[in-house]
Amino acid sequence: MNSSATGEAKASFRGILHIGRPFTSLLVGLGVFAACVAGAGLNVVDLWLVVTLATLVGFLFGLASNALNDYLDIDIDKVAHPERPLPSGLLKPKTYLVFSIVMFGGCFLLTYFLSTISGLAAFVMVLLASVLQIGYELGIKKKKAAGNVLMGFQAALGFIFGGIIVGGLEATLVMAGSSFLAIFGREIIKDIEDIKGDVGRSTLPKIIGPKNAGIFASFLVIIAVVISILAYYPFAIFGLGYLVIVLVSDCIFVGSIPLIFKNPNRARKLLKIAMLIAIIAFISGRILP
Q1: HSE on the CB side for 23, CA within 13 Å?
Q2: pLDDT at residue 3 tops 70
């Protein structure tokens, strides 16, 4: 194999590793896992099979959804994200579509096994999330802020899913509320970043302008931070260990706000890191004192 062919093979392999945005999808799975831990506490050990299946369902759902999004948004990404594997030509669109179908299939297969253990609610919730996600990709995301709200709702649904699976929904409601606002805000920031490539879409930045959209996104992030603190006081859902870790996350959330107006791409990436730390805080909240 000559050096040119080797280089192309390596580039294609790197592209394959990015299908479904694995890190973002991992956050979906970890969110479900965090909700399971928050809902069950130390009893989560006894529910290891249910928790493992639910976490994998979340991860596969994230992979499937992100791959479908990239497949349908290739024209937008050619302008906003030309470095990604699909718009850069590293991979073919068909590869993304097949990958998405396979991941959705795997997600439903695991959900079937999960529902035989924990009940029909698991299957109904995943079916609902899938219908909403496909509906979002095929048209809802083109309708003003409705798509942003739906993505926030999907994030919240993941936490509710984890809580229901282990029979501890009450402890996950704060997580669901905070994640709804954080993801809602992050989706608006993403629309600010993609404004030049969003042809034919009535996104919030296009309607009220990038600056006003940034202000609204900042407000959502701040409220999400406030809710995360309320889980410690006055509601006392989680202990001091949770507070210490979540404050680190909250500092990153707040620190990303100025970047929304200067570098939305950087702000979006910081928010992703903050969300990961917040998930760790939620997991720790029922384990640490």
Answers
A1: 6
A2: no
